[in-house]
Amino acid sequence: MQKYRKLFMNKYIITGTAFAIWMLFFDRNDFRLQLRRVGELTKLQESERLMDKQISDIKNELSLLKTNPETLEKYAREKYMMKRDNEDLFIISTDSFSSR
What is the DSSP secondary structure assignment for residue 22, as one 8-state letter? Predict the structure, then answer.
C-alpha cells in the first residue's frame, strides 16, 4: 500500500495527469472540439468529391455540346424550351398535379 501511495505522490505522475486532464477537457482545443472538427472535415471532403464529380460531368456535357450538333439541339430544347418554327411546344408541369 505504501508503494502505491509513493507512486501516486510522484510529482511527475501528478503533473502528467494534470496536464492530460487539462488538454482533454479545459484547453481551447479540447477533445470534443477535435472530434467536431474531424466530423466537419469528413463532410467537407464528401462535398469536395461531389463537386469534383459535378465538374467532370459538366465538362463532359460541354465537350459534347461543342462537338455534336444533335446534342446542342437536345440541350436547347430541354433547358431553354426552344422549338422549331413549324412545331408547337406543350409544357406539362408535374408540380400542379402533386399539390392536389
Answer: I
- Residue 74 falls within a domain, yes or no? yes
Tens digits of residue pLDDT in 69-99: 888 888 888 888 777 777 777 777 787 555 5
Query: Does residue 98 lie within any of the structural domains?
Result: no
Q: Which three cell numbers stand for residue 19?
A: 496536464
Cα–Cα distance measured from residue 94 to residue 46, given in angstroms and rounded to the nearest whole number: 32
Q: Calculate the alpha carbon distances from 76 to 48, 86, 89 in Å.
A: 29, 16, 13
Domain count along the chain:
1
Percent helix / strand / coil, the chain, rounded to 5:
75, 0, 25
Say if pTM beats, i.e. exceeds, 0.70: no
Q: In sequence order, which residues have a C-beta less than 8 Å from that of residue 24 and are 6 or more positions away?
A: 30, 31
Domain that holds residue 65: 2-83
CA distances (Å), 95 to each of 78, 81, 98, in order?
A: 17, 17, 5
